[in-house]
């Protein structure tokens, strides 16, 4: 029906003297502002109160900064992302960017309320931005249908605050590393103007958490890596020979049968967002389950196992997004002291919240600026170093690439992500560190999908 305007009388006189259009489901004027529109926000910014920051001085400038200047980046347009976009737009933030690499699935519609059945198959970021922009006058949400890794430093540097509604620990660690790389140090002293605060929210069923990270000043994602639950992986021997659960059958088809049969052509990997792929795995899993008299395989379970989906609860997303949006508002307005610095929420049985201060790790690989020590005997094989980087709680890397400077030349010792180089460097895995020409005190440069930065390690030989 387009833009409607509800005409309200302002001041005295008749209708012809003073009328002002007030937006209902549509825009009006350049900004869409009408009298009283931001009264709910002004109550926080234009008067003092018992919870305001000790240095806070009420003024009209804070609101103008939110409306006209402040740029916020939202990562993820799913369960948390939809809530965050709605909350931020209604709190006065008008310059918002959103990044999401996913398309809308019918299973999203029960809680991701910016999407409708007609949107299934379209990019989440595009639809979320369109909905907010059409519904909230003056708000300008810019969508990016891509991975966060596809954007560079100059893109991230433009924002005042970044807020995460991600469902991936790898992505969280990557943006954490990106914000660390944007910090400027002068004579070892951090330039606070280079800090971009990161607000991170996460939910899992009826549990959730929110945290405020000031890069270079407070605990970062990698400082508290041990807090994240380990990824559930089923033992390969169980999957291959003695399946007992429906999940075992699905994993068998995904890990062993797919590469063997290559149903959609050579080299085509499983895409959890491609219905035909899920359908094929579902049908083959049913056949596998029948052989072992296992019941309970459904299309939805198949999708859940392939995509590592954790059941989502709309109310948990609403609570955590509200906490995150409140923290964005507190930091952007400087009116209130931010959360310090980690909040946990649980409403499995009753309702429980708790806040504590996560502490910085002195030798954190992401934020300490200290080279990490790698202690191994010279007889250790390169494979052992690789295993250490992937399995140690402080690193938890996924596919580390290791390079070193030998005889003045930069040499790749092992690189997993490019097939031709992986084949060429694979023999190095069985060689000892001494055989590779590495010496005590040698610097190793390690890159991984968990960070945009290259991490430096110092090799210490144990005698």
Describe, in plain words, how this protein is organized in 3D.
This protein is an alpha/beta fold. The protein is 30% helix and 20% strand. It has 13 helices and 17 strands. The strands form 4 sheets. The protein has an 8-stranded mixed beta sheet, with helices on both faces. A 5-stranded mixed beta sheet has the order 13-17-16-14-15. The radius of gyration is 26 Å and the shape is globular. The termini are far apart.
Question: Which SSEs are present, and which pair or pack?
Answer:
Layout: E1 4-9, E2 19-24, H1 39-45, H2 61-69, E3 71-75, H3 79-90, E4 95-99, H4 124-135, E5 140-144, H5 153-156, E6 161-164, H6 169-181, E7 185-186, E8 189-190, E9 198-204, E10 207-213, H7 236-241, H8 246-261, H9 275-291, H10 299-306, H11 314-333, E11 342-346, E12 352-356, E13 372-376, H12 382-391, E14 401-406, E15 409-414, H13 419-425, E16 443-448, E17 451-461
Helix pairs in contact: 3-11, 8-9, 8-10, 9-10
């Amino acid at each position: 029906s387009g833009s409607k305007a509800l005409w309200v009388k302002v001041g005295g006189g008749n209708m012809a003297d003073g009328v002002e259009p007030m937006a209902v489901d549509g825009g009006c004027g350049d900004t869409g502002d009408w009298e009283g529109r931001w009264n709910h926000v002004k109550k926080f910014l234009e008067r003092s109160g018992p919870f305001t920051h000790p240095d806070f001085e009420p003024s009209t400038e804070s609101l103008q900064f939110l409306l006209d200047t402040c740029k916020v980046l939202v990562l993820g347009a799913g369960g948390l992302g939809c809530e965050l976009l709605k909350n931020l737009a209604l709190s006065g933030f008008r310059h918002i960017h959103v990044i999401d690499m996913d398309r809308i699935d019918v299973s999203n519609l029960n809680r991701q309320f910016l999407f409708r059945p007609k949107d299934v198959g379209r990019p989440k970021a595009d639809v979320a931005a369109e909905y907010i922009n059409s519904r909230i006058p003056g708000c300008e949400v810019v969508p990016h249908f891509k991975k966060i890794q596809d954007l560079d430093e100059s893109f991230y540097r433009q924002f005042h605050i970044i807020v995460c509604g991600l469902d991936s620990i790898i992505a969280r660690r990557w943006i954490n590393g990106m914000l660390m790389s944007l910090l400027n140090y002068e004579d070892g002293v951090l330039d606070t103007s280079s800090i971009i605060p990161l607000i991170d929210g996460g939910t899992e069923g009826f549990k959730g958490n929110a945290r405020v990270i000031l890069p270079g000043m407070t605990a970062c994602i990698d400082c508290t890596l041990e807090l994240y639950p380990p990824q559930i992986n089923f033992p390969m021997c169980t999957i291959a020979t003695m399946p007992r659960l429906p999940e075992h059958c699905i994993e068998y088809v995904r890990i062993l049968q797919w590469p063997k049969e290559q149903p959609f052509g050579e080299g085509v990997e499983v895409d959890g967002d491609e219905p035909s792929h899920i359908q094929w795995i579902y049908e083959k899993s049913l056949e596998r389950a029948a052989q072992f008299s296992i019941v309970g395989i459904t299309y939805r379970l198949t999708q859940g196992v392939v995509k590592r989906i954790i059941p989502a609860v709309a109310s948990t997303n609403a609570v955590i997004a509200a906490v995150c949006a409140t923290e964005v508002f507190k930091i952007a307005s400087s009116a209130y002291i931010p959360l310090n610095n980690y909040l946990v929420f649980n409403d499995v049985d009753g309702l429980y919240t708790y806040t504590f201060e996560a502490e910085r790790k002195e030798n954190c690989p992401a934020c300490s600026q200290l080279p990490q020590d790698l202690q191994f005997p010279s007889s250790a094989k390169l494979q052992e170093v690789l295993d250490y980087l992937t399995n140690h709680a402080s690193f938890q890397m996924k596919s580390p690439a290791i390079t070193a400077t030998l005889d003045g030349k930069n040499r790749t010792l092992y690189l997993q992500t490019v097939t031709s180089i992986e084949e060429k460097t694979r023999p190095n895995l069985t060689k000892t560190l001494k055989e590779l020409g590495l010496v005590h005190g040698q610097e190793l440069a390690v890159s991984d999908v968990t960070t945009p930065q290259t991490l430096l390690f110092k090799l210490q030989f144990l005698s």
